[in-house]
Design a protein that fits this description.
single chain; 249 residues; alpha/beta; Purple Acid Phosphatase, chain A, domain 2; six-stranded mixed sheet; 35% helix; 16% strand; globular
C-alpha cells in the first residue's frame, strides 16, 4: 500500500517487491515539495525563491495572498498547457514504475482524465468501484473535497458521498483522504486540519470493514486508530519515506 507518491518514481519501482499486488491511493503528481522547495512543477516554472514564498504564505494560512501571488505568476502564460505538459512527463515515469498487478485510485492533486493514456496492462484504476484481491473485497474512492488549496481533483461532498455509497459493504475501504476524525486529519507539521470525509466515517460505522486505508495527511497526529471493529490506517507519505505499508491476511 502506498499513497502520496508525489513524484518518487525511483522508490515506487521497488514498492511492490515481494508482494502479491500493489495498491496506490493517489497523489502521484508533485506540484511543490514542502520539504524541498526546489522539487516539483511550481519551482521548475517559477524558481525556488517564489516556491519559498508561496509555501510561507500557505503555511501561515494566508491563502488569499498565496492565490494572488500565483495569479500574478501565471499572468500571460497558458497555465493549463504548462501544467499538463509537466504532469504528462511525471505520469510517464510514474505509471511505468507500477508493477503488475497494481490497483490505483486518484488523489486530490491528480488529473484523472490523463490516467487512461498512461495506465498500462496490469494497472487497474478504480473510483467508486470494488475489486476482489486475495479473497477480500476492496472498495476504492478517489479524489479530495473542496479546500482553500483548490487542488485539481476536488469534488463536491455530494459526489464524494455517492461514490462511497456505491461501494456497499467491503472488507477493505481504500480512499485518498481520511474519514473525518480530527486526530486523523490534523497535520502536525503544516499545523492545519486537512479535509476528511464524513461519508467515509458514516460508512465505517455502518458497515464495519476490516480496514479503512488512506493517505493525504502527510504528518498526521494519529497514524492509526480503531473505529468500532475497523482498523483505520494512514499508509504513509510515500514521497518522503519510500517505504510501502504492508497489509497481510
Amino acid at each position: 500500500m502506498v499513497s502520496d507518491v508525489h513524484g518518487n518514481s525511483t522508490a515506487l519501482a521497488r514498492a511492490g517487491d515481494g508482494a502479491d499486488a500493489l495498491v496506490c491511493l493517489g497523489d502521484l503528481v508533485l506540484f511543490l515539495d514542502y520539504d524541498d522547495h526546489s522539487r516539483g512543477i511550481f519551482p521548475e516554472l517559477f524558481g525556488v525563491e517564489k516556491a519559498d514564498l508561496i509555501v510561507e504564505l500557505r503555511t501561515a494560512r494566508r491563502f488569499a495572498e498565496a492565490r494572488e501571488l500565483a495569479r500574478s505568476l501565471w499572468h500571460g502564460m497558458d497555465r493549463d498547457a504548462a501544467i499538463e505538459a509537466a504532469v504528462r512527463k511525471q505520469y510517464a515515469e510514474l505509471f511505468a514504475a507500477f508493477p503488475a498487478p497494481t490497483y490505483a485510485t486518484y488523489g486530490n492533486v491528480d488529473i484523472p482524465r490523463l490516467w487512461p493514456e498512461f495506465a498500462q496492462d496490469g494497472t487497474t484504476v478504480l473510483d467508486g468501484e470494488r475489486a476482489e484481491i486475495g479473497g477480500l473485497v476492496f472498495g476504492f474512492v478517489g479524489g479530495g473535497l473542496p479546500s482553500p488549496m483548490r487542488t485539481p481533483h476536488e469534488i463536491s461532498e455530494e459526489e464524494y458521498a455517492a461514490k462511497v455509497a456505491a461501494l456497499g459493504h467491503v472488507d477493505v475501504l481504500c480512499s485518498h483522504i481520511p474519514p473525518d476524525v480530527p486526530e486523523l486529519c490534523y497535520d502536525t507539521v503544516a499545523r492545519r486540519f486537512e479535509r476528511g470525509s464524513s461519508a467515509l466515517l458514516d460508512a465505517i460505522r455502518a458497515t464495519s470493514p476490516r480496514y479503512a486505508l488512506f493517505g493525504h495527511v502527510h504528518q498526521p497526529l494519529a497514524r492509526r486508530m480503531r473505529i468500532g471493529a475497523t482498523e483505520c490506517v494512514n499508509v504513509g507519505h510515500f514521497a518522503s519515506t519510500g517505504t510501502p505499508w504492508v497489509l497481510e491476511w
